[in-house]
Design a protein that fits this description.
The chain has 245 residues and is an alpha/beta fold. The chain has 8 helices and 7 strands. The chain has one domain: Rossmann fold, CATH 3.40.50. 47% of the residues lie in helices and 16% in strands. It has a 7-stranded parallel beta sheet with strand order 3-2-1-4-5-6-7, sandwiched between helices.
Length: 245
């Protein structure tokens, strides 16, 4: 028996990187998967490659109406939601004197508010399913500050707190909520938006002396989505090559 047989999952930011790797792994483990993103062509291509149990939907995670549409369509296509992976996120790296209010607001709306919306709008569907697992993707930046990443730090620290609060509120409905904290992972988001100087420092500070791969984070997410983690909720799971050690 596969780990996620006939489970219904929504994965945001699934057009590439960790989200796409997680969608592929979930399909291999028997789930029905709704991949969402604002990168339509990439997302559709990934979903098509995964077969009939996968579908792509355009989705701006900062908009309540988009979340309501995604959850309603997911229920119509596959049934009540069992698993939510709040993976969509952005990073804007700038010195504080170059940062703008718009940078901070955009980061907040996608990384933090989007995660909040995902949890509260998916919650009723999980209640009907009589179980659920929510996995919020934070970062090692949710544990310590990093220069040039104030808005990103703020959003990733916030995800830790929201995860714990939701875990306490949702527990009596058999819905678990945990956060995953990747270190430097070789994804388009990190490789395209972080300076070479920062990349070099990140790898230097990682005891395993390499960047992680999206598939390695996906395996942690699978663990939290499956019954293998049935007694884990409100906790942080780190995939950083030892960087926080």
């Amino acid at each position: 028996m596969k780990k996620l047989d006939n489970k219904v999952a929504i994965i945001t930011g699934a057009a590439q990187g960790i989200g796409a790797a997680t969608a592929k792994l979930f399909i291999e483990e028997g789930a029905f998967v709704v991949l969402t993103d604002v990168k339509d062509s990439l997302g559709e291509e990934v979903a098509k490659s995964l077969g009939d149990k996968a579908v792509f939907m355009h989705h701006d995670v900062s908009l309540r109406k988009d979340w309501e549409y995604v959850v309603a369509q997911t229920e119509k296509l596959f049934g009540y939601v069992d698993i939510l992976v709040n993976n969509a996120g952005i990073v804007i790296q700038k010195p504080i004197e170059e940062s703008t209010d718009e940078d901070f607001h955009k980061t907040y709306m996608i990384n933090q508010f989007g995660t909040y919306l995902g949890m509260v709008i998916t919650y009723p569907s999980m209640v009907k399913a009589k179980e659920g697992s929510i996995i919020n993707i934070s970062s090692t930046s949710g544990f310590r500050g990093k220069a040039g990443l104030m808005a990103y730090n703020a959003s990733k620290f916030a995800i830790r707190g929201m995860t714990k609060s939701a875990a306490l509120e949702f527990a009596d409905k058999n819905i678990r909520v945990n956060s995953v904290h990747p270190g430097f992972i070789n994804t388009p988001m990190t490789l395209d938006n972080i300076t070479e100087e920062y990349k070099e420092k990140a790898l230097h500070d990682t005891p395993l002396k390499r960047g992680g791969e999206p598939e390695e984070v996906a395996k942690m997410i699978l663990f939290l989505a499956s019954g293998d983690s049935s007694f884990s909720t409100g906790s942080e799971f780190i995939t950083d090559g030892g960087r926080l050690a």
